[in-house]
Amino acid sequence: MKHPQPTTETPTGYESVRTFLTAVALLAISSFGGLLIIDGFSRLQPLVGLGDSFALTFLVGGGLATLWFAAVGVAYLRFRPVTIHYDLRWPTLRDGGWILGGLAGIIVVSLLAEVVVNLFGSGSATNISTAAAIENPVFIYSVFLVGNLLFIAPIEEFLFRGVIQGRLRESFGTITAITITSVGFGLTHIPSYWFGGSDLLSVGVWGAVVSIAATGFILGYLYERTNSLLTVSIIHGLVNTVGIGLALLAVL
């Protein structure tokens, strides 16, 4: 299933600039909108008798923020069609190879980023899920584990790789589109560290952002190679599952 094909005319300089600004706008609207949703829910909680549980803020506010990502992508597609390769089907053995290779590549990149961060200093790099899990780690990580696979990863891949990367590809080509999208993917995770109470100027936070951007680059490359949003959503979900699973094991 694909959205209607966009025009195939060679883009002018003006159109390329407009495409870039559109991508920046989508990244900003999704990121700041998600931040406002989580912050707004945290302020609403005590007013409606839900207390000040940060775990609840994460689960409900974070869930609504993820839905906001989906709403931004769907709204834009109604305004400006973008070709998206959903490829909704049962994965094949070939898909399994891409999934395992992508997972291994992202894990290696993440480990290298951690080594570099440790060489140049650490600093706080606590994200919203880690901060929320302090109240009830087993429950929070268990819910997050399921929500990540079925909800968070597919929606983020739809917006970033499907909509934003797909739009950029029309004007800039594959590599530039992947690069811009992956940088934006990393930057849009900064609010997560802000909610987690991290020092946003620390080496730890920016090391994490670079690692996430590198992960986004690998996902973007694999999306172009496989033409399958399903495949990269599975890889994305499994990468997060590894991290969540390790955090869960650490508290058991």
Provide an overview of this structure.
This protein is an all-alpha fold and 252 residues long. The protein has one domain (13-251). Helix content is 78%, strand content 0%. The protein is globular. The N and C termini lie far apart (43 Å). Mean pLDDT is 91; it is low at 1-8. The chain crosses the membrane at residues 20-42, 54-77, 98-119, 139-160, 172-194, 200-222, 229-251. This is CAAX prenyl protease 2/Lysostaphin resistance protein A-like domain-containing protein. Residues 143-242 form the CAAX prenyl protease 2/Lysostaphin resistance protein A-like domain.
Secondary structure layout:
Blueprint: H1 13-47, H2 54-79, H3 93-120, H4 128-132, H5 137-172, H6 174-187, H7 190-195, H8 203-226, H9 229-251
Helix pairs in contact: 1-2, 1-5, 2-5, 3-8, 3-9, 5-6, 5-9, 6-8, 8-9
Transmembrane segments: 20-42, 54-77, 98-119, 139-160, 172-194, 200-222, 229-251
Domain CAAX prenyl protease 2/Lysostaphin resistance protein A-like: 143-242
GO molecular function, one term: endopeptidase activity
